[in-house]
Specification:
The chain contains 15 helices and 7 strands. The protein is of the alpha/beta class. The chain has 2 domains: about 55 residues; about 280 residues, SGNH hydrolase (Rossmann fold), CATH 3.40.50.1110.
């Protein structure tokens, strides 16, 4: 029979083993918790790249609060002072819903004007189109486009040349681009630029001068509604031919530039028009049915598609001359527009 001392010693060893077992279980539990935490962090990094962890963005009540979350070096104009700053958010039956996350990682498709009903062609009678040879084609295919609009278009131009150079006129004279636009007294300006810059400029330079151009126009013509149109792509075969020459006309590059343009436009209270919806195929390249022959410029069908898209993608206003059949059609508004332009013509 075991003595008391032997019994006591066995009891101590048993308690020690129990404590060690409990301690081992505790260590294992801690290790499991740390492992799970590590997996959660890794999964979050995959699901929310570029530091977009859940909870980084919060609901905002105004565009000013959204702008406060952006890089202050990016914004060169006070958005609260721009006439259209709330138009895209608040105006019209069809509203855009752009939150802070979209502005940090913008997608031009989500930030573009939605379809807002078709307007009468009279809407474009006080429009000036600013652009390069693509915009010059509006005059060539006049019957398919905007016969009563003004053009400020120069072959080979880019935002940099429009900001820094005097532009040559057909008579041999030169003119400041923004002053020329001002001389047409527009109520609305549509801008399409980018194809020429893809060849000779970095994306950073292109975007820098595009900002300067928008700010220059906004300062010179306050209150004018400005529409910036997405840079169209080339056809797939022209994109490949350019790549063989070392020129990057890729769908991916142009998409990144359009994302940056959409953000630039939005924080200024202007309007972004995703022209690619009208001109490009599902794979992102220029529709070959609209190819003018060089893979970049448009034919008559392309200009008709461009025109029809702009007709149905204007910034909503109750007094717009919407066509009969549009959900926003107002006979009184149409009559007012027609009378306004009739008086201008007869006067």
């Amino acid at each position: 029979m075991a003595t008391y001392r032997e019994y006591s010693e066995r009891a101590r060893r048993r308690r020690r083993r129990q404590r060690l077992a409990l301690f081992a279980m505790f260590i294992l539990l801690v290790a499991m918790i740390l492992g799970v935490a590590y997996l959660v962090v890794k999964v979050a990094a995959i699901l929310y790249p570029q530091d977009e962890a859940p909870g980084d963005f919060y609901p905002v009540d105004s565009l000013e609060e959204v702008v406060e979350q952006l890089d202050p070096d990016f914004i060169t104009v006070d958005p609260s002072q721009q006439p259209g700053v709330h138009a895209v958010l608040d105006e019209g039956p069809v509203q855009q819903t752009v939150d802070a996350a979209a502005l940090v990682n913008p997608d031009h498709r989500m930030m573009a004007l939605p379809e807002n009903g078709r307007v009468d062609m009279v809407y474009f009678d006080d429009v000036t189109f600013l652009g390069d040879s693509l915009t010059q084609g509006i005059a060539i295919y006049n019957d398919n486009t905007f016969p009563n609009s003004d053009l400020a278009a120069w072959k080979g131009c880019s935002p940099m040349t429009l900001v820094t150079n005097q532009m040559a006129q057909p008579d041999g004279s030169t003119v400041d681009a923004v002053e020329y636009i001002a001389s047409t007294a527009p109520d609305k300006i549509y801008i399409l630029l980018g194809s020429n810059a893809l060849v000779s400029q970095t994306d950073e330079v292109f975007l820098k001068y595009y900002e300067q151009l928008l700010d220059k126009i906004g300062t010179r013509l306050p209150g004018v509604r400005i529409y910036v149109q997405a840079i169209p792509t080339a056809t797939s075969y022209e994109t490949a031919a350019r790549a063989a020459k070392g020129q990057d006309f890729s769908v991916e590059r142009i998409s990144r530039l359009n994302d940056a343009l959409a953000k630039m436009v939005y924080v200024r209270g202007l309007y972004f028009v995703n022209l690619q919806e009208a001109l490009c195929t599902d794979n992102g390249y220029l529709n070959p049915d609209f190819d003018g022959g060089d893979g970049l410029h448009l034919n008559a069908a392309g200009y008709r598609a461009w025109r029809d898209y702009l007709i149905s993608h204007t910034a909503h206003r109750a007094d717009n001359p919407y066509l009969m059949g549009s959900p926003y059609y107002d006979p009184a508004a149409n009559e007012a527009w027609l009378n306004s332009f009739s008086s201008q013509t007869t006067g």
